[in-house]
Design goal:
Blueprint: H1 2-42, H2 64-75, H3 78-83, H4 89-122, H5 131-153, H6 164-193, H7 204-227, H8 257-260, H9 262-287, H10 293-315, H11 320-345
Helix pairs in contact: 1-4, 1-6, 1-11, 4-5, 5-6, 6-7, 6-11, 7-9, 7-11, 9-10, 10-11
């Protein structure tokens, strides 16, 4: 009897480990996707593909004639006519490569998530009663592709730049999916190790606050990118020679300033970074005598590294390499916070997914 129970437990643990590993791989691909998306934005490559072919477009142009046809399509839209007029075919190929790679990676993620999900369901590694949550993740992933094209369409008009609102929505959904994948993977990994777990003692409320602040900061970062606000006021710690530069919230209407005024957007992004640093230090103080101290230290280090990357990105006027690292750093910090939050809140719970 005991031997049978041990065998069942071991088998259940193996299936949960397999599912957890699949979820972590999916999350890693989403992380790469966000980085590639950031590079696509930084290199101003996002409007190079003017058609959406989510099912049929798996290969780039393979002949000179195909490349020329793609280039001619691009030339019909405002970005070429107003920004890149006179661009050579080779220059077009360079920006096309980033956008094509971004879209192709999205399809790869779709396959990496969908095919194993079907396999796990058919083989019983994921029980049918556990399937609804994974179907939610699948729908969210598909919605992200649709939202991405909705964002691109906003730049194929008279103003050849994507809407910062749609960019923020696109990035926010990607980050939301990423966190859900990490959280779900942690649940399945923990439940593969033993039947029950005791949560690690730690500052739960402060960790939740930190997670919310970092999420808001990522959205603000999308508005910085979407309005090119990082290309102005490239000094630190002062902004335009002052801590509170003249002209903040001077916008009509004023309530749109946090979304459309470059000075205000960058100012809010800076100030929130200081708030996040203070909250992270406060969290360390609360966790110092608790078992969660090491996780809290990891969170603080990722946040401090992210702030340093942000400062360097600003003062060097947003080079592609630093901009990409800054975006990756945001998700790494978010990963550390999510891991800590799981450890101090969810490790002892039994879940269906």
């Amino acid at each position: 009897m005991n031997t049978e129970l041990m065998l069942v437990t071991a088998g259940d643990g193996a299936r949960r480990r397999a599912v957890a590993n699949w979820l972590f791989v999916s999350a890693a691909l989403v992380l790469i996707m966000v980085i590639v998306g950031g590079i696509t934005r930084l290199t101003e490559s996002g409007l190079s593909m003017v058609h959406w072919e989510p099912i049929t477009r798996w290969l780039p142009p393979l002949t000179d004639a195909a490349w020329m046809q793609e280039f001619q399509h691009y030339q019909q839209y405002p970005e070429y006519q107003k920004v890149n007029h006179g661009m050579s075919l080779d220059e077009f190929k360079a920006i096309f490569a980033w956008e094509f790679g971004h879209r192709l990676l999205g399809r790869v993620i779709g396959l990496v998530f969908t095919l194993p999900l079907v396999f796990f369901l058919l083989t019983g590694r994921i029980k049918w009663r556990e399937s609804p949550w994974f179907l939610v993740l699948l729908v969210l992933g598909g919605s992200q592709g649709v939202l991405g094209w909705f964002m691109v369409k906003s730049g194929l008009v008279d103003r050849p730049d994507v809407s910062q609102y749609r960019l923020a929505a696109h990035l926010s959904l990607a980050v939301f999916i990423y966190v859900l994948l990490i959280w779900t993977g942690l649940r399945w990994r923990k439940l593969s190790l033993a039947a029950t777990f005791e949560p690690v003692s730690g500052p739960v409320r402060m960790t939740w606050i930190l997670l919310a602040l970092v999420a808001v900061q990522i959205v603000l970062g999308a508005f910085v990118a979407g309005t090119n606000a990082g290309h102005q006021y490239n000094t630190f710690p002062l902004m335009d020679g002052d801590w509170f530069p003249e002209g903040l919230f001077v916008y009509d209407p004023a309530w749109l300033a946090p979304f459309e005024d470059r000075m205000t957007i960058q100012f809010l992004h800076r100030m929130l970074a200081y708030v996040i640093a203070v909250v992270a230090i406060w969290m360390i103080w609360q966790a110092w005598t608790r078992p969660s101290r090491q996780m809290a230290l990891g969170v603080l280090l990722t946040i401090l590294l992210q702030i340093i990357l942000g400062v360097l990105t600003l003062i060097y006027v947003v080079p592609v390499s630093l901009g990409a690292m800054h975006q990756a750093g945001a998700l790494i910090a978010l990963t550390a916070i999510t891991h800590m939050l799981f450890g101090i809140t969810a490790a002892g719970r039994r879940n269906r997914f």
